[in-house]
Each structure stands twice: as C-alpha cells, then as structure tokens.
Automatic annotation (TrEMBL):
May play a role in protein folding in the endoplasmic reticulum. It comes from the Eukaryota. It is a multi-pass membrane protein. This is J domain-containing protein. It comes from Penstemon smallii. GO terms for cellular component: endoplasmic reticulum membrane. Keywords: Chaperone, Endoplasmic reticulum, Glycoprotein, Membrane, Signal, Transmembrane, Transmembrane helix. InterPro entries: DnaJ_domain, DnaJ_domain_CS, DNAJC25-like, J_dom_sf. Residues 1-27 form the signal peptide.
C-alpha cells in the first residue's frame, strides 16, 4: 500500500521528464522552420554565403527600418538561424538532426549541451536543477501526506475518537443543532491537528527536508556534525565520562538499527530497559540477541 502510494506520487514527475525529452528534436533549432530556408541558402552553402545572406536579410527586416510586426518576428528568426548556422559545431549538429530525425534523445541532448554548455554558468544550471527537484519533492511530500491523512480518517479508530471528543465537548447535549455543527467543525479541526502529530511514515512536509535547502545548509550541517563528533570524542574517549541519558539512548537506538522515528514511539519503560543493557557493547548485544532468539523459539 505504502509502495503504491509512493509510485502514484512520482507519476507526474516521470511524465514531465518524458515530455521534456520527447519534444521534436529538430524543432528546438528553428521551431517549425528550416534554418537554411530562413536564410534563403542551400544546405551546401559555405560560411561566407551564409554570412552574406544573413546581413542582407537582417538589413531588410530590421525593426528600425521596417515597423511591420511580422517583419520583427522574421528578424528574430533569421538571427536565431544565423546563430545556429554560423557556428561549425552547431551547424553540424543541426545537419545531423535533419538526417537522423529518429534519434530524438541524442539530438536533444546535444542541442541542450551546446546551448547551455556555452551560454550559462554551471552554477546557474545547478541552482535551477536544485529548485526544480525541490519543487517536485515538496509536491510529492504533500500528496503522500494528504493521502495518508485521508486513509487514517477512514479508519474506525479515528471515527470513534471523533465521536468521543464530540460528546465530551457538547456534554451530551444534542438539542441545539446549529451550534452543534459549529462545535463539530471545531472538534474535527482539533482532531486533525492531533492526527498530524501521529502519522508515521508520512511526516508533515517540511521545507528543511528539501534537497535545495539541504544543499545550501550543507556547510552548516557539516560543521555541526564535526562539532558533535569532536565533543563526543572529548567527553567519552578522552575524559572517559559515563554516557549521558540522551547519548546512551542514541547508542542503543543505533546498535539496534532502529530509525529515529520508530524509536520515538517506543514507550519509555521499554527504552529504559534497553538502555540499561548497554547494547553498544558487543558482548551485551550478543547476549541480548541470544535471549531474543530463545524468546521467539519459546513463543513458537
Ligand atoms: C563560397 O562560395 C562562393 C560561391 O560558390 C564562392 O565564391 C566563395 O569563394 C566561397 N567561399 C569560401 C570561403 O569557400
């Protein structure tokens, strides 16, 4: 169930990615026109012919001389065609795309490589990529979160809780219908809030989890980690201090391989019990495992 939800969440992402890649690969050059036709030259024209044709056309359609809006459009198109054909490398790419229209992916990739590789800073591309990824991530998180909420709201446990809360609020009085409805709404809101704290696996979406934000915070995170590690080393390796409750809890959780989310939901006395066993010690862990094995055999 959880898996199918996750798959449904990523479908729009995949569709968009495929759409971006399958754009007709020739039309990325001169849109619906042929770049050579725009300049009025043949595909075998040499570079000086192309240059001459471009200067002639750009003079003819220049917006200063020709106020016609159609002419302005043509001016832009011609300039774009010349951009592509004046450069040996992009012209060769374009010729290849004409000759092999079926190699959609290859042509598109080459076009974007030539285009963005030259003209934009890799840093800008990286920032753009992080932004897009973070956007998708955020949408996906919300979709999953809302699906989880909807599912929980359909369970009998939730409905019963809602009823109990309702009764508590109204004090069993059911004669004033109008105010009742208002109260119901309020109760439902409160319960939703409470629920939000309880749903495991689908945490409430948080901007701090986004790839982009994480990337920006990376230096801070690294420094924090380093400090934490340094303190740990100083306190427990150098000064040989006994583990604090919090750190003992962390060590226990880690030696058991329990994710921090799940650890939060274990009740305090069980945690205390586990911590006292000092499971981060290998021998203690082994004896604990042995005990568990015997326990499960006994149950069977
Ligand atoms: C390009 O072609 C024209 C006409 O065919 C010719 O006169 C000219 O010398 C050529 N230029 C180059 C650089 O090959």
């Amino acid at each position: 169930m959880a898996q199918s939800t996750a798959i449904r969440g990523c479908v729009p992402t995949v569709i968009l990615a495929v759409f971006l890649l399958i754009q007709p690969s020739i039309s990325i050059y001169c849109e619906e026109d042929d770049c050579y036709d725009l300049l009025g030259v043949s595909q075998t024209a040499n570079s000086s012919e192309i240059k001459k044709a471009y200067y002639k056309l750009s003079l003819k359609h220049h917006p200063d001389k020709n106020p016609d809006p159609e002419s302005k459009k043509l001016f832009v198109k011609v300039a774009n065609a010349y951009e592509i054909l004046k450069d040996e490398a992009t012209r060769e790419q374009y010729d290849y795309a004409i000759a092999h229209p079926e190699e959609v992916f290859y042509n598109t990739a080459r076009y974007y490589h030539a285009y963005y590789g030259h003209k934009t800073d890799t840093r800008a591309v990286l920032v753009g990529l992080l932004l897009v990824l973070s956007g998708f991530q955020y949408l996906n998180q919300w979709t999953r979160y809302n699906q989880a909420l909807d599912m929980v709201k359909k369970t009998p446990a939730y409905k019963n809780k809602l009823k109990a809360l309702e009764l508590e609020r109204t004090g069993g009085m059911t004669n004033k219908k109008k105010s009742n409805k208002q109260i119901n709404k309020k109760v439902e809101e409160d319960l939703s809030k409470e629920l939000e704290l309880q749903i495991k696996g689908a945490e409430r979406p948080s901007v701090w989890e986004l790839i982009g934000i994480r990337f920006i915070l990376l230096p801070y995170t690294l420094v924090k980690l380093l400090l934490w590690y340094g303190c740990w080393f100083w306190r427990y390796q150098v000064k040989q201090a006994p583990y604090s409750r919090e750190d003992a809890s962390y060590l226990t959780r880690r030696s058991l391989g329990v994710p921090s989310d799940s650890w939060r939901y274990i009740d305090e006395s069980s945690k205390e019990d586990l911590i006292e066993r000092r499971l981060w010690d290998k021998s203690n862990m082994e004896s604990y495992r042995e005990e568990m094995r015997k326990e499960s055999k006994r149950r069977r």
